[in-house]
Design goal:
The complex is a heterodimer of chains A (81) and B (893). With 81 residues, chain A is α+β, with helices and mostly antiparallel strands. Chain A contains one helix and four strands. Chain A has a single domain, classed as Alpha-Beta Plaits (2-Layer Sandwich), CATH 3.30.70. The chains are: A alpha+beta (81), B mainly alpha (893).
Amino acid sequence: MSSTGPQRYAIRVRGHLASRWASRFDGMALVPQDDGSTVIDGPVADQSALHGLLRTISDLGLPLVSVTPSDGPAHLSRRTP
Amino acid sequence: MAPPLLQSKYRVPGHRPGTVTRPRLVEALAAALRTAVTVVSAPAGFGKSTLLAEWLADLPADTATVGWVSLDKRDDDPARFWGYVLAAFRAATGVGDDALGLLASSPSSPETALVALLNDIGRMPRDLVLVLDDLHLVTSPAVHDGIAFLLEHRVDQLHLVLATRADPPLPLARWRARGELLEIRAADLRFTEQESAAYLNGPMGLSLSKHDVATLDGRAEGWIAALQLAALSMRGREDVGTFIAGFAGDDRHVVDYLAEEVLARQPEEVRGFLLETSILERLTGPLCDAVTGREGGRARLVDLERANLFLVPLDDRRQWYRYHHLFAEVLRTHLVDERADTVPELHRRACVWFTERGDTAAAVEHALAGGHVDRAADLMERAMPAMQRERREAELGRWVRSLPDEIVRVRPVLGMAFVGALAQTSEFDTLEQRLAEVERAVRPDGGAWPARVPPGLVVVDEDGYRSVPAGLEVYRAALALRRGDLDAAAAHAREGLALTPASDDLTRAAAGALGGLASWSRGDLVGAEAAYVESVAGLHRARFVADVLGCCIALGDIRRTLGRLGDAERLYRWALGLSDPAAPLRGAADMHVALAGALIERDELTAAAEHLDTARRLGAHRGLPQNPYRSRVAQARLLGIRGDLDGALALLEEAERVHDGDYSPEVAPVPAVRARLRVRRGELPQAEAWARERGLSPGDEPTYLREYEHITLARLLLARRDDTAPALLARLLAAAEDGARAGSVLEILVLQALAAQARGDVPSALEALRRAVALAEAEGVVRVVADEGPPIAALLRTLPKHDPAHAYGRRLLAACAGVTPGPALVDPLSDRELDVLRLLGSDLDGPDIARELSVSLNTMRTHTKSIYAKLGVTSRRAAVRRAHDLGVLPRRR
């Protein structure tokens, strides 16, 4: 169990999401990717918060691709408009 | 709670119009009737419920009975969950009152109700299909344990069908390996191209080309909810081809894209209605009117259902609906995105509507969701008494935990509910802190409890406020008991009883039970008796009948130890009268066993055996935790009296294996009961081993908790003719008399009589016997005396006719084990004759006997002749044998 405060996570789902969905993910960034997926990126308070996020993803029927600890949004390739 | 809403929870959904039939999956589901468990597992919008509804609608009525439970997130609590399952079962079959009664009486341990349910299913002529829909909403391990329990003890008729978005934490792999699991998963549920074509060009009334169908199906990946949204977007559209191309060429999440399309095509008032009512988990016309502030909600819902806008009817009368989960998510997201500032007000309106309807649970949820925490706190506080009465403390605890701490801290009544929640999760350190905080808030200076609510604190339930001081003492008693500080526990409980308002039955019951337990463990049986009486009265008035039965086990034990067998027996009969014989409560078996124990003591052995049989017939699930061992100990006692010592020993060994003291002090430990039987069988080495193991010695200071063991030790010492027995018995007697334990006094006196008799001190033996007989007669006790058999019979026979103990002594004599009650000696032997007779049984010759008794040989001969005459014999050997047969002399070992 970690005691070092919130950890950042990057959760990748298939499909792009309109930015309005950010409110459903507690202010995390929704970063559309060129491969048609979206990375939901941001700090997650603890394990139960992470499971809560995964549950929201399941509620929305979003196909889950991966969940990884993240260093921050910088390395994510943002799709150019 | 509104009845239609309740019934909608276990309504079997009909076949939905506008859906396509799926013969391949219905055929696959036929195997569900041959397997224990069917899991239909796939994400939202894959048509799980629709498929099950289609399958069940086509199932011939004589194949199986169907029970269905539509779960929601509030069902994540064993009592509520199983309440709905049992209600669904009863709705489907017309039976199940028994199980529902058991669940209502002990909601925290549903296993007993599940056993009753399994028994009911086992008696059904047909199979039962039990569907648990949306099982993913239930995450509580306690509920999953219950489902696993149901399947571990499954009867052949039961087929469980679990529809869920996520595989439940159940041993699926094990069932799969045993071939007892049927799985229908997302890959099976996806529409094939053919099904997509049938759906889009059938019920949805489109006429799409094969190519268009393939494009849509490929983009939606057979996801039914997506295809449904796509169809809605295309209906009435001229440019279907453009739409399909646009959809296929977009990377957006299909539901996000399509729902936006569908929403954009609705007239503004429909769109507004959809968004505003999306905060509701369930919809009905008047509720929608209240939330939107406009009329016509009912007509609007009917229109939406007709337009296939993801509205699922929850009852046959079209009163309650819900949005399809996936669509509801989209609607809520749009609502928050476009009109975030209106959301709190929408929840407030829903909260008011549910409050007026008396559905506090829904009202609380809307108050919390809308951020109206004070309103939520008010609602909780008002709902507390009813929830405690209905055993919904777990739910109450979850509510209070969802409130911000600063709200709870200024509300002492809710603070106590929070303390209750902490007790349930065993967070005792925090609990102690919160108790101190509640006390400091109400009386900062530690003075008298203020009758009026101090400024700064919020109280809406005045009665609840008056119960706070007593509640604090009750929790302090529980904490002290947990620490093992019995004196403090008893003191807090007493204070709690003194502070409890007259109308607060539950606090009275809790204080009484805790005080009773603490006093009992301290050996203060008089105090314990009084406390348990309060507890039983409180529980009875609060209609917690199963708990009354549990408390009566303890109260009966205490009364018997106090020598009040009659009061104990009346208590058991009263308690049994509370349980309906047609649907006996859990604990009824315990009362029958307890009653059997009392009847054995009275030597009413046939009636006792009948009660033990009744207890057995009621089944293990009608027994409280102590019943398995207690029923065996009682049965062993009965066998022992009837002379089957081997059978008794075997039962006691079993009793030891199944022993569960259920937090009661262990005042008659099974190993000690067993040691007594060893003594009776003459197996002294085994009994000695027990005494060594228990660290018992004749010089021990008597304490109540070890009294039973010490009396057992005294029995062992007597059998060994150990001369430390009398001193031990004298100290035990003094302690028992000191504690007013007349039941123990009686037993000790019997042993003292035997000890005195063994050392030839007949006057002392008779004095102890007279006292014992008087005590026994007062309560109609027989066995504790009669079990001693020939030795005690010999003493009883010496009671002269004019003795006050003579009449009851004859009754006891008749019950003595191994003694033929009649024809007793017409003319009893005198004390002197008994002395002579005892020596006639030895190896001494005539002159030696005379010397031993300091009489002349002639006097000795006169006694001998008189003995022969009274016994009707002519030789010394025959006299001794006859004396043994009559129990006048103890048998030689």
